[in-house]
Design brief:
Elements (H helix, E strand, L loop, with lengths): L1 E6 L6 E6 L2 E7 L1 H4 L9 H11 L8 E4 L3 H15 L4 H13 L4 H9 L5 E3 L2 H10 L6 E7 L6 E9 L2 E9 L4 H11 L8 H7 L8 H8 E3 L5 E3 L15 H6 L13 H29 L3 E5 L6 H10 L4 E4 L7 H14 L24 H10 L5 E2 L4 H10 L4 E4 L13 E6 L5 H10 L8 E5 L3 H4 E2 L9 E5 L9 H4 L23 E7 L5 H14 L3 E6 L11 H10 L4 E4 L2 E4 L20
Parallel strand pairs: 1-4, 4-5, 6-11, 11-12, 14-21, 16-19
Antiparallel strand pairs: 1-2, 2-3, 6-7, 7-8, 9-10, 13-22, 14-15, 15-20, 16-20, 17-18, 18-19, 21-22
Helix pairs in contact: 3-4, 6-13, 7-11, 11-12, 15-19
């Protein structure tokens, strides 16, 4: 039974294919089109999924779309009628897209796919819940989903048992934790739906000065974690911006202009909204555990990507185990939709062992083999050497000399995190590495933190976390014994001045609050990266490296060898590894930005 799940037309379009309940392939459309957060019909992602499974659209038994368009359109109409005549501009803008595209999703999919069967629909938050629970190791679990908005729901509490998911509680638009966070993303000068990570990374530089102001004026939080926003301070319901003049006045002026200087005010705002988010999530999960009597937790929706909040939940609540969908945003809805088709529509049985998840380390995208890569390198006359059996030893040597390496191997990751297949790596011990990677490789803000990849058997020796973290979705603190003493003068520093103080013997991944966004690596999840970490540990005594996504600011993670080579040449990376092939920057010709390396490489 072959089931295709699709998400598209809002942001982060994606496709996923499930065969007899097994996740076979999944990918975001942005990786193929090179348009970050591409929301268009995921033609390329679908073609990849079909190609990976060696089938055609005629072989599909079911196609499931990740939400219900008519229900969403109902929400847009009712919202406009409620706010009219305000909001006419945003309504007209939305109406034109709906009447020409979004209301005709079934016919569009059937036509584009050349598929004659029925199109099934899952509700948006049910797709999120399915994406979190069905791949999890748990036979029973509490499921929490939270994002901007689906059809009506913005937050849900659900119970998963076997093949059944029951939604117990929902919070509806316009009251939304995701939109509250996005409002502060907008106000601090970052882009909504992509800059939320920046707000989270900026928060440790600030003080929670505005928490009481937020709680007194913007949001009313109940003990069960439910909440209501004071809509007088927001403009997203009827306008084309996130904040109203009342919001701007409350916080002392207009939003920060994008690309302008980030000040202490933005840092304090980021810290404040982060604290409020953590308060809500803690109350909600605690309440959900109480009403379900379950202490195994599944999370999905955009808010589940807030790994700082996830870490606080683990620290503060009696959680027995946790699974967070690696593609927790809308892209993950495609996978949730496909699994919803198998378990909820077809009612197939589900079996788990309470230990191992079914996500396959989220390595579900395209793979390019050595033969194809060699042909590609020769065709474009790119200088390279082939690595032998000692390749991990060679790469580890480069890393000990503070070189930055682009790592391209195995199947591409599904979700926003690079997990070692499309990664840029460096030596976590280097005090220069964070600054070098941010300014010379990623071309992004200097305050942005980097994540460690660490051998699974070693993580408890360095980090204060009870659970492994294979998907880089939990923030954990560095243990006290690994922290460096800070002088009295250094303690007086605040804001961005804290940045350059080494706080542990692995300063490149230790954030200013002694935390790190942890990824644990086992031999079963990623043998290549595991062996590299082992070699690095043999040389240095520590199996930890810096890991960041293989892309530059504003671009999606690389998909093809052409994408990887272009990114390598545009930045100050020192080496590029394409499977078993090594490229040195000094051996390459001067980069011509006019070169077109796109879409010239076929999948194997």
């Amino acid at each position: 039974m072959k089931i295709l799940g699709i998400s598209c037309f809002y942001h982060d379009a994606a496709a996923a294919i499930v065969i007899d309940g097994e996740i076979i392939a999944a990918a975001q459309e942005e990786r193929f089109t090179r348009k970050k957060h591409d929301a268009s019909y995921p033609k390329n992602a679908i073609n990849y999924c079909l190609q990976e499974t060696k089938i055609t659209a005629n072989d599909l038994d079911m196609v499931v779309y990740y939400e219900k368009p008519l229900l969403k359109f109902e929400r847009i109409l009712e919202t406009y009628l409620y706010t009219a005549p305000k909001g006419i501009q945003s309504f007209i803008k939305a109406l034109s897209v709906w009447t020409t595209q979004k209301l005709w999703i079934s016919s569009k999919i059937q036509k584009q796919l050349n598929y004659q069967g029925e199109i099934y629909y899952s509700e948006h938050h049910m797709s999120h819940a399915a994406s979190a629970f069905y791949p999890s190791p748990f036979q029973e679990a509490l499921i929490i989903t939270a994002d901007g908005v689906g059809e009506w729901a913005t937050t849900s509490i659900a119970k998963g048992c076997g093949n059944n998911i029951e939604i117990l509680k929902e919070i509806h638009f316009p009251h939304s934790l995701g939109l509250l966070y996005s409002t502060f993303t907008y106000y601090t000068g970052f882009k909504v739906n992509s800059g939320e990570y920046k707000v989270m990374g900026l928060a440790p530089y600030g003080e929670p000065k505005y928490v009481n102001l937020i709680l007194d004026h913007l949001i009313d939080i109940k003990e069960d974690g439910s909440f209501r926003l004071n809509l007088e301070y927001f403009n997203y319901v009827s306008g084309l911006t996130m904040t109203s003049s009342k919001f701007n006045n409350l916080f002392g002026g207009p939003p920060r202009k994008p690309e302008s200087l980030v000040t202490q005010k933005e840092m304090d705002l980021a810290k404040s909204v982060q604290v409020v988010t953590e308060i809500i999530m803690e109350k909600m999960v605690s309440y959900g555990m109480k009403i379900t009597n379950l202490n195994k937790i599944c999370l999905a929706g955009g808010v589940a990507l807030n790994c700082v909040s996830n870490g606080k939940l683990i620290k503060k609540l009696p959680i027995q185990d946790i699974f967070i969908q690696p593609s927790a945003g809308d892209a993950g809805g495609a996978l949730g939709a496909a699994l919803y088709g198998w378990y909820s529509i077809l009612k197939k049985d589900r079996y788990t062992d309470e230990i191992n998840d079914f996500q396959k380390n989220s390595l579900l995208g395209p793979h390019y083999n050595n033969s194809d890569i060699e042909s590609y390198l020769k065709e474009h006359k790119i200088k390279y050497t082939k690595l032998g059996n000692d390749k991990f030893n060679v790469i580890a040597d480069f890393l000990t000399k503070e070189n930055v390496i682009g790592l391209f191997q195995g199947r591409m990751e599904y979700g926003p995190r690079a997990l070692g297949s499309r990664s840029i790596i460096g030596d976590a011990r280097s005090p220069k590495m964070q600054k070098k990677m941010n300014l010379k490789i990623k071309y992004r803000e200097s305050f942005r933190p980097f994540a460690p990849i660490i051998l699974e058997e070693d993580f408890k020796e360095i980090f204060d976390s009870p659970f492994k973290s294979p998907y880089m979705l939990i923030v954990a603190d560095i243990l006290e014994k690994h922290r460096k003493d800070i002088s009295e003068e250094q303690k007086k520093l605040f804001g961005i001045d804290k940045l350059n103080i080494p706080r542990s013997h692995i300063p490149a991944i230790t954030h200013v609050d002694y935390s790190a966004r942890l990824q644990t690596i086992s031999n079963n999840t990623n043998t290549y990266v595991y062996n590299l970490l082992k070699s690095f540990k043999e040389k240095t005594g520590i199996g930890v490296l810096v890991n960041t996504s293989f892309n530059v600011r504003g671009e999606p993670i690389v998909c093809t060898p052409g994408d990887a080579y272009r990114c390598f040449m545009r930045t100050e990376m020192d080496y590029l590894i394409l499977e078993d092939y090594l490229l040195k920057k000094e051996d390459q010709p001067e980069w011509n930005e006019g070169e077109d390396w796109k879409n010239e490489f076929e999948l194997d």
